[in-house]
Amino acid sequence: MTAAAPLPEATPVSKPFWRALTEHRILVQYSPSLGRYVFYPRTLAPGTLADDLEWREIDGAGTVYTFTVARRPTGPPWADAVPQILAVVEWDAGPRFSTELVDVDPADVRIGMRVSPVFCDVADTGVTLLRYRPESGDV
Fold first, then answer.
1. What is the Cα Rg of the chain in Å?
2. ChsH2 C-terminal OB-fold domain: which residues (predicted)?
């Protein structure tokens, strides 16, 4: 038996993001003063330090910015989960998001591949993880 995988813990700042995921929605902060979305959740806009951040829903569609295929476990909790495709997805809304690709053969993954969100509810925890799969027809 493998060790339980660690789960994210919401902070007061990130709670809206994690709560939305449990509803299978993606909320990301937007800064009107910057005119763009920002991620990771924070209290002040990057660069300007404006306190104008507001939560807005995005569809989560994007492209693979970079990826790696872990053929050895990245830690004991993932001993049975290899190969694991770790990726950074660039949302169409702008920011980049670290995630895992699912439902795809590692040999088929490529930078620039269109991907769509997959909401993975972790049983008995109240936590939902955001992963990605190729858009149909992009493999």
1. 16
2. 55-119
* Tokens 């670290």, located at residue: 98
- At 42-75, the pLDDT tens digits run 999 999 999 999 999 999 999 999 999 999 988 8
Question: What is the DSSP-derived secondary structure letter of residue 83?
Answer: S
Strands ordered across the beta sheet of 54-58: 36-38, 26-31, 54-58
Nearest by Cα to 113 from 84, 133, 85: 133
3-state DSSP assignment of residue 74? coil
The closest of 97, 113, 34, 30 to 60, measured between CA atoms, is 97
One-character DSSP codes across 7-28: -----TTTHHHHHHHHTT-EEE
At 113-129, the pLDDT tens digits run 999 999 999 999 999 99
CATH level 3 topology of 60-139? OB fold (Dihydrolipoamide Acetyltransferase, E2P) (2.40.50)
| Residue matched to tokens 């995921």 | 21
Q: Name the nearest CA neighbour of 114 among 69, 59, 68.
A: 59
Question: Is residue 86 helix, strand or coil?
Answer: strand
3-state secondary structure of 127: strand
